[in-house]
Amino acid sequence: QVQLVESGGGLVQPGGSLRLSCVISGSIFHIDLMGWFRQGPGKERELVARISSGGSTNYADSVKGRVTISRDTAKNTVYLQMNSLKVEDTAVYYCNAHSFVSGGMDYWGKGTLVTVSS
Question: Half-sphere exposure (CA, 13 Å, Cβ side) for 45?
């Protein structure tokens, strides 16, 4: 089993910054991708950013240039640094761990709320 615990959400003004953290624990040796997804009000869950076990990253077009995903393998933690936040970034942000084994397995955290408002 894999457990994911997010932190760092909150209320921020437009143009502000936040850093989300996700601590992963359990049987993590088979995890190939770590990522952040979000689900805004009335919207479907969408990918924000991902980082592979090799360090490759990809981002949603809507956040490119404003968001950086990184990891600290010693701390088993993945970060999402978000800058120049916009009202439309308001969402619950979920940490995700993906494994390619067994046809693909996904693990999710419970989410952390980010509210961008003046």
Answer: 10
Q: Could you read off the pLDDT tens digit of each residue along the chain, which spans 118 residues?
A: 899 999 999 999 999 999 999 999 998 888 999 999 999 999 999 999 999 999 999 999 999 999 999 999 999 999 999 999 999 999 999 999 999 987 789 999 999 999 999 9
3-state secondary structure of 102: helix
- The b/e string for 33-68 (b: 16+ C-beta within 10 A; e otherwise) is bbbbbbeeeeeeeeebbbbeeeeeeebeeebeeebb
Phi first, then psi: give them for residue 35, nearest 5 degrees. Answer: -155, 175
Are the CB atoms for 51 and 78 separated by under 8 Å? yes
Give the tokens for residue 117. 């408002």
